[in-house]
Amino acid sequence: MRTSGDFFILFGLLLAGLSSCSQEDYSSLGETGSFSMNVQASNEVIVGVDASRAEAGGKSGEGAAAESLPDVNDFSVSVSSHGEKVLSWDTYRTMSEEENFELRPGAYVAKAWYGDLSDEGFDKPYFEGSQDFTVKRGETTPVNVSCYLANARLAVVYTDDFKSYFSAAYSAEVTGASGNKVAYVQDEQRSAYFVPGTVSVRVKVRKAGQAQEAEYEVKSFQAEARHAYTLTLDVDVSSATMTVEFSEEVSDENVSFDVSNEALNAPAPYLKASGFVPENILEPVEGANAKEQLSVYVNAAAGLASCKMTVASSYLEEKGVSGEIDLTAADAKLETLKGLGFQTKGLSGNVSQMALVDYTGLVGNLPAGRGESAFELRAIDKYGKVSDPLTLRVAPQLCNFAVSPTDVEVPFLGNTCQVSISFVDGDPSKASFVLADGSQPLTVTGISEGMATENGRQYIVSLQAPDGVQFKDPFKVSASYLAYSLESAELPVSYGILVDSEADVWAKRAVVHVYNEENLSALQFQQYKAGKWENVSVKEIDGNYVTVNGLSSNSALKLRARKTDAEPTNEVEIQTEEELQVPNAGMESWSYERGGDYWGIWYPWNEPETDGWNTLNLKTTSDGSDNFPYDYAYVANSGTKETADCHKGEKAALIRTVGWGAGTTAPGPFWDGSMTHTDPGYLYLGKNSESPETDYSPYLFASRPDALSFYYKYTPSSGRSASNDNFEVWVKVENRDGSPTVLGQGYLKSGGKVTNYTQGSISIKYTADYRDRKATHIYIIFKSGTETRYNYMSVPPRLNLSDGEYIGSQLYIDDVSLIYE
């Protein structure tokens, strides 16, 4: 019968996408289709390689008759779409009484079945069939579902000779893939049904006058759906041999057993448990060392042929271990169990009569929370007799494993640490550890004696990271134990300092990275100099970075920090920069190269060199020629030259805006003078350039000064624009390891007449983005002025025939120095 829940599922499918139509309204639109179902069933099964109605018979014994077919009207029916059931009926009969199975167009699966596949035993066949079909709009689709046996059928047949030989008692027991046991008692004629999978068969027999039954492990095989199997038991009286014959597809070879009086009277193998009671559930704490050995003693007087263990464990199944394992044969499952602590003795090599199966280590490695694990053991002797099964059942209890930091701080830059682990009971040596980010394993170097706690025992585990690991910041440790994988809270690390980059070390200061200390203002920083530690001052605190100054320049130093009443931090070795200065800083060195009677070229050095100070003089004197009738200075004029008007010493630099060039003339009685070119004067560090503001090659320089200092006087150009005339000074510190990068720079633009030498200063501001780079070059430019128009320049005297000049602004520079703070 269709349930109300199924009706609502169908109703929802019919109305998907609609919000105001009833089911009848929807159907009336012609948007649905229908189907008609016909269910059929067949008891046709596969025997050997042929499909037929199973009529298996025994040799001189009664056969197993074919089972009657259930009435298809009693079959259950359902319709599904994309794995979800949309219609269902308890019986096909009920479905047949209904009409109008309207569905939305689409793909569906019809299924019919009878019985329960998981239910194994006599009179429990399970039939099933399904059919895909498609519903089309406005059409009725016929659906035919054929059902066949979906489990395996097994019959046991005893021959007359067998019944006569074992007149006292005989029976068979079959264990299905689901673990259900079905007993075929004496004279049982019915077939039993089993879930497809591994099926195991045992036989028990007793002759007249024999005191005890003898049990034999006959065979295990893979039973398939829709297959009918027959097991025929027979005895050859002349040879006292019991044979077991299977259906053709199971085995081409019969199984034979010695059933002579000697064999039948030989004691069957027996098993004896130690440390546990068979079938009782053992409930150890997971991971705990057993208080006594958990083992089974195996004895077979006739000699051991094999020892088989059936494993039922969800945890071990995930590791590929399940079902039956022959402990006397090489097997990957057995190797997996041995890797988990399982051990055997006497079951490999020359197997004799006795053996030991040791579960102790395996039980200690079974986790809790995964249900029960069962290990059924059976021993088979050389006569084929099998022992009574002995089962160890284990349901481990939670050990409440935990991992946490200790109160001991991890040494800064060290690679050792401690964690605390605890559990109700367990073996701390079974725990393994890695850094929580998964990057590095940790080696256990020591485990303390367990300390009793309210909830069990606690251990302190000492750990060491691989070489190359240095702990700086707090970190977490991951601990693995059995099936646990836990992450600790952060382990505290001692406070310490580092200098992240050599570029953080300047001439008199350094940027120190402080770790694991919040109150940075409470730290006192020290430098080790001349065999002793001395305090240095703090210039700035920025987050976790402290800038300390007062360091000795051009020195190999050590830095450390300390708090009151606390051990100092680690020591950091640094090399401070040198307080480098520019060449010819006092402007005392000059040279002059005469080019004509009244002109020449001035150079700001004694000997020719191109990577110190340079000028624009090569450009402004480039039109000078000895062939010119008059070698006038205003034709070839040095804009920058020496002067005795200095701040200190004997000389200074005079930087002038000048007029120059071929065709330049001085004023006469009937004409004004003319000027071809005007250029400001420059004094700059680096190689010669005609455009020193934009096209320059700076001076090699490996330090980073904080300011540029110089002394100057200034006379702006004359005329109405004099107040707008300004001299300019640039300073740039660069890194040219690769693409040129300006690390820091400063700029000054100033005007107005300054008649006495005055100190000028420019701070160099460094870009934080390039704090990881050292200096390779420096560039300094002094420019005479910004006004270069002709009518604002002083002119040569009228009719000047010698060394008259066109002069604009004049900047005097002396005693240039770089400041380091």
In words, what does this structure look like?
- The chain is mostly beta strands and 821 residues long.
- It folds into five domains: 146 residues, no CATH class; 125 residues, Immunoglobulin-like (Sandwich), CATH 2.60.40; 86 residues, Immunoglobulin-like; 80 residues, Immunoglobulins (Immunoglobulin-like, Sandwich); 229 residues, BT2081, beta-jelly-roll domain (Jelly Rolls).
- The two termini are 95 Å apart.
- The strands form twelve sheets. Strands 30, 31, 32, 33, 34, 35, 36 and 37 form an eight-stranded antiparallel β-sheet that branches. Strands 38-39-42-41-40-43-44 form a seven-stranded antiparallel β-sheet, with no helix packed on it. Strands 47, 51, 52, 54, 55, 57 and 58 form a seven-stranded antiparallel β-sheet that branches.
- Strand 6 and strand 7 form a beta hairpin.
- The N terminus is likely disordered.
- The longest helix is centred in the first third of the chain and has 11 residues.
- Helices cover 7% and strands 43% of the residues.
- Pfam families: DUF4493.
- This is DUF4493 domain-containing protein.
Please provide a brief summary of the model:
This is DUF4493 domain-containing protein. The protein is mainly beta. Strand 10 (127-135) and strand 11 form a beta hairpin.
